[in-house]
Amino acid sequence: MTGLKTVAFHTLGCKLNFSETSSISRLMENEGFEKRPFDSLADIYVINTCSVTENADKECRYLVRQIQRKSPESFVVITGCYAQLKPKEIAEIPGVDLVLGAAEKFNMAAHIRELVKGDSTKICSCDIDQVNDFHDSYSYNDRTRAFLKVQDGCDYQCSFCTIPMARGKSRSDSLSHVLENVKSLAGKGIQEIVLTGVNLGDFGNTEPGSKKKTEDFLELAKSLDKLKEIPRFRISSIEPNLLNNDIIDLVANSDRFMPHFHIPLQSGSNKILSLMRRRYMRELYADRVSRIKTLMPHASVGADVIVGFPGETDEDFKETLNFLHSLEVSYLHVFTYSERENTRAVEMKPVVPVSVRNERNKILRNLSFQKLQYFTSLHSGQTRKVLFERSRDKNLMEGFTDNYIKVAAPYQQEWVNKIVEWKL
User: Fold this and answer.
1) Residue 410, domain extent
2) CA dihedral in degrees (356, 263, 180, 254; nearest 10)?
3) For 4-16, what is each residue's pLDDT tens digit?
4) Which of 262, 309, 333, 339 is the most buried (most CB within 10 A)?
5) Are residues 324 and 409 in the same domain?
């Protein structure tokens, strides 16, 4: 393996995965590997997988087949959530050489150096209960925004979710080390940092033998708000039961934390929320959104919603639809429920037909489009601060306002990586 020098990465799933892929790629470059685009020829291809939906699993298989056709002598490495959950299943995919579970993905270079083409697929995985270390990561490349992981894992046991089995127990970086990473990113010219985690609001580690946290997310936010090196912070996603009034108030009074919240809802029916084993009812969710919009009428609020959960009747879905209509949310991320092995939900009855799930998804995506159009129209004619970055189209640049309205404009080099007053 000593002659193999080039490596290409592809990421499936969430912003957290992107931050980890970026950090793994830097570790590989430090080990002497040269990073290549994924659509070019490389000695090694790494796919960092997700397993939130069935499509992520299918896409992983599709990508391996693509690599096999393009470069059959190259090595294929699979890591990420899918690799932790189903390592043997992945090892049976023709062309896969190495499967790395949650504990080994940051030791990738050492494992790759031991590979021999033609050997049987090597699996390096362990029981998820043994995964206790926190590995910090961030992505930035040539972008103006960085995704900074400050928390990993989850102690919640939602009945539909495989994430605790894929990422382990909740654990966090230390506040002091987060601040070091932020200052390092500031030195690279980053203008905005998006804080990411599996259960971000659960930030903070507990004292040995105690359930008491030594630090929490509010303390982290307060510390970051005092830093002058970074002009913008954004909270990627936070559970409604962990988004307390103090955090909302801090954002409302901050010049650095952007007026943008993404708060998973999953269902507007209390019956379904109970079946999902969520830790709140719809009334608490409505209260959180109401407080945000009262203090920050211009704030953007996004929501995750799952349709077609087992037992969701037409009446339950109508309740969710009406609830979302009544809420001042700006956009929705809509997920069609898919059965995941080893979850409580997979045993629940009655099962909602796939055709009904898809129809409900379409209805909520249409509502999301209407919500986003309406929210954007409210700000038409206003001047807001936009952080511009390069677009894939060389003639354009793109950016987001403080309250997460996407803007495209003709390319001007002097505005890239700059915060510009922009009339919408």
Assistant:
1) 383-423
2) 150
3) 689 999 998 888 8
4) 309
5) no
